[in-house]
Each structure stands twice: as C-alpha cells, then as structure tokens.
Known about the structure:
The complex is a heterodimer of chains A (about 150) and B (about 300). Chain A is mainly alpha-helical and about 150 residues long. Chain A has one domain: Four Helix Bundle (Hemerythrin (Met), subunit A) (Up-down Bundle). In chain A, helix 5 runs antiparallel to helix 6. Chain A is elongated, with a radius of gyration of 17 Å. Helices cover about 35% and strands about 5% of the residues of chain B. Chain B is built from 11 helices and 4 strands. In chain B, strand 1 and strand 2 form a beta hairpin. In chain B, helix 2 crosses helix 5 and helix 7 crosses helix 11. The relative contact order of chain B is 0.14. Chains A and B meet through helix 1, helix 2 and helix 6 of A and loops of B.
Amino acid sequence: MRKWSLIISSSLLGLGVALSAGATDVALPAGPIHDRHELMEGIGKSAKALGEAAKAGDRAKAATAAASIQESAKKIPDLFPKGSTHPDSRAKPEIWESWDRFMELAKQLEAAAGNVVTVAEGEGELGATTGPLFATCKSCHDDFRVPEE
Amino acid sequence: MCERPALVTTRGLSAGRVAGACGLVLAIAVAPVLAAGDAARGRDLFALAAGCSCHTAPDGPVGAGGGEVPTPFGTFYGTNITPDPETGIGRWSDAEIAAAIREGDARGKGVESPAMPYYQYAGMTDADVADLIAYLRTLPAVRRENRPHEGELPLARSAYRAWRLVFAPAPARPATAPTSGVARGRYLADHVAICTDCHTPRSRLGVPVASRYLAGTADGPGGAAVPNITPHATGIGDWSVDDVVNVLALGMLPNFDNVQGYMAEVVDGRGGGPGYGDAPAADRRAIAEYLMTVPPIDNVVGDE
C-alpha cells in the first residue's frame, strides 16, 4: 500500500510540478505563498546571473544581480505570515517555531548580497564573496525548506 | 574434495567454509589476493563512496548500520560495518569483507539483496578495496544489531541469488585504477561514488536500465525525484565542469540553490561521517569531467 501511495503521490506532484513549470506556479494559492515562490525563483535567476558574471569578470553585471538579491531579501519576512503553510509549499512549520533564526538568516542574506555589491563596485576579490552568499541560502534551506520530492 | 582456491572470492563460498586438510594446504600455498591496505587512502575512498552512508543512521554513529534503503521491495537497512566483533564485521577477514562489497556474499548470510550495490562496487580494484577495508577497520566499533528487511519477500535468499545470477553484470575490474582525467572519473563514478545507483532508473525487477544511464527518474529512492545528470539540455548540458564540481564539493547548484535530501547527505556526509565534499578535489573534478562525456539523454525530471 505504501509503495502505491508513494507512486501515486509522487506522480501527482510530478504532474503538479509539470503544470506549474515556468515562472507562474498555478498550484500555489494567490497571496504570500505564491509571491514568495516567485521571489525565490527570482533570487535564483539573479544568483545564476551573478555566478556567470563573476566567472566572466563582469563586475557591473555582478553588482546588478547582487543588488537584486539584496532587495529581495528585505521582502522575505513579510511573505511568511504566521502559519502560512500549504501542502504545495516547501515552507516548513519550523519557520514560525524558530522565527528569530529565520529572521537572522534573512538579514544574513541581505548582508551577504550587499557585500557582493560593495566588492563588485570596488576592487576586491569578487570570487570570495559568492561562497558566503551561497552558504546563507543553504543554511536557510537546510533548516526551513522541505526537500524536493 | 578440493575446491579451487577459495581465497579468490567465489560466489556462494566464504573463506571460512573451506574445510579440511585439502583446503588448508591450498590456503597455505596460494598467496592472498588482497595485500594489506592503506587506511589513509581508504578514507578518501570512503568519502568518495559517500561515507557508505546507507550503513549510517541519520544521527550516526558512522557505519553502525540502520540507514534506510527504501525500495519497491520494502525497506532494507544498511548493516553494521564497524569492527564490532559480534554485531559488526570485526571478525571478518579482508577477503570476506571484499566479497561482501564486490561479489554480494555476506559472511554467514549468503547472497545479498541488490539493495547493496555490490554489482557496481564489483569494478573496484583490489588495491582500492583493500584500502577501503583498512579504513573501515579504523571506525569506532559500535555494538548495534542489524535491522532486518521490512517487507514481504518469500524465499529472499534464493531470489537474491537468482537476481545476481541473471542480472549482475560480470565485473569489468581493472588491475589498477586510472589515476587522472576522464578515465579516473569514469572509474570513480561507476565503481566508488556509484552515481548510477540513484541516477539511473531501474526496471520493475530493480535492474538499472543501461540505455537510460544517469538520465534520472521521477520515481527514485523513496519516491524522490532524481535529476538527469547527462550532458543533455534536459540534464546538465548547459553546465560547466565547475558547476558540477560545485555540486560535488558543496551541494551548490548554478543558481545558488542547494541540493537537499539524499544528494545533500552524500555531499555533506551522514551522521558525522564524510561525504563527497571531503574527498580529494582532483577526484571530484575527474568525476565532473567524466559526466560531461556520457551519452546525452532527453529526460525531463521535475520543473528544472
């Protein structure tokens, strides 16, 4: 029985994921749950651009991408109203159980992205700034995001 | 009756079962297949084997067993591979441990289920398996009984023997492991890190589908989606070698997302043990270079 429910639920999730491919996620309810998913996808796009720019030595593009991430980080707290879990949302209830930690990581993201901007606009070693930025993304995901199924 | 030298691991025979004067004479006359290994090199191999994390429960201790291996045939639990004499492998000889890793023969139990990917480790060289065994013997011994397989499988040992007979490919085992480049990458990917164990879809009978090598599946271990890691547009075709290295070293994806679930465990290690992130950097790069050369396969898994 368990095997079948695993197959069925992962098929349905796969279908839901396939339907929601692309920028707009139709499976998520409108409002903060939908908007924060968009925000995270946007951060991902900027981060990808940042990685490519850093590799190419394009400091201007790196600064722009990092600034976008910094702006997005500021919006995080408001997009996680208390208890806004949902079966299709990867936000874990732990977010609200450890809200201080969640807020700390959001601030850390803002700071790390800001640091990339500062270095990109200056003369420093750009490559050394992206590691801490990724580490922040990972810390928050590890504690507060449901693994992809 | 004299068996041919059982120190060369033979299917269905454990060294301990060679009995009588005949076997004793052969045991003295034939040099051991495995020379003593180097535990320091073994630690690198252990890290490249994802810390053998199927043999480690989520909160450790390393190698003490209890790691869940979900399959369509029920849940298996990795065995205790610490040197505990009663519940672990402390009393096993090097040849017996090698037979378990590469041939699917478990001392005192018989043929292993294919949940233990012996048929992939089969390609590991004698020197490498000896090094790995030397390292395993340095793990802190933990007394923990093995957990039995959960699920209905009548005549299990016969089924495992039949599976091995029919489906396990004859090991293509080099005399020495390639030392660098794509060749080393292929050796490590196929026989140590065994990427294919998760990333290649399996048939109903649990046989990896060779024509879909590393193409990923929406229904992988435990029902989780496993990405396509072939260099196709639907896989890692747009990635650089550095991008792949970043996944193996840090679990980092090109958009700064991080892998989670099983992949995170094999990179970060489970229960405090090492993972790919602790392996030699050159070996991670070799694996990444190799992945860029495998046949590209069109297979969309998930939304990315």
